[in-house]
């Protein structure tokens, strides 16, 4: 009631006042207010796995911003073996940021296409395709048969960028196996074929 024009909706903010005193909330607030500028590379690497996504992303962006050297080496290291899945994903996304300026920066991620963690394989395929990494081509084709539908999805989309005409056969095989059950896989196959 009493909502001024144009009457198209509202945003309600609801919170538990006791939750504000939670140690994790207090720590997150301090980290966000302080920013990442003064943190060491090791501290930033640790924050890539922090529970709050705003802190993880701020640490990721700060490592990218610091330029070549220890910060970027740390991103590559965390992407390869750096603790939690969340930390590794943010490191992969940081390498993606580097790849926007220099596509060769993503080459170390090619090895992640065979990682035991399906989400790491998926994110690596996503980044490698987005950065037009033709060196990942053969492994991306192989990922069209990955047990994880998410990995197959990102591999299909990536092949839309780095694929070759003879990739039509494995893409069609993925679409046939899908049998029009998963619309996301159908989309990925179409994008791969279109590319």
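^ structure tokens above, recovered residues below v
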């Amino acid at each position: 009631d009493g909502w001024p024009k144009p009457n198209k909706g509202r945003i309600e903010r609801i919170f538990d006042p006791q939750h504000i005193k939670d140690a994790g909330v207090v720590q997150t607030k301090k980290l966000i207010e302080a920013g990442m500028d003064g943190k060491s590379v090791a501290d930033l690497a640790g924050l890539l796995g922090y529970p709050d996504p705003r802190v993880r992303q701020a640490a990721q962006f700060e490592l990218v911003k610091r330029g070549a050297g220890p910060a970027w080496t740390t991103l590559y290291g965390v992407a390869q073996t750096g603790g939690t899945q969340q930390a590794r994903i943010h490191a992969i996304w940081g390498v993606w940021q580097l790849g926007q300026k220099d596509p060769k920066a993503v080459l170390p991620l090619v090895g992640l296409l065979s990682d035991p963690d399906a989400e790491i394989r998926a994110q690596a395929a996503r980044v490698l395709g987005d950065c037009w990494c033709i060196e990942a081509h053969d492994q991306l084709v192989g990922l069209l048969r990955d047990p994880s539908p998410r990995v197959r999805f990102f591999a299909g989309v990536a092949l839309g960028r780095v694929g070759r005409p003879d990739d039509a056969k494995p893409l069609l095989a993925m679409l046939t196996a899908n049998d029009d059950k998963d619309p996301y896989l159908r989309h990925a196959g179409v994008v791969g074929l279109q590319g």
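The CA atoms of residues 118 and 148 lie 6 Å apart.
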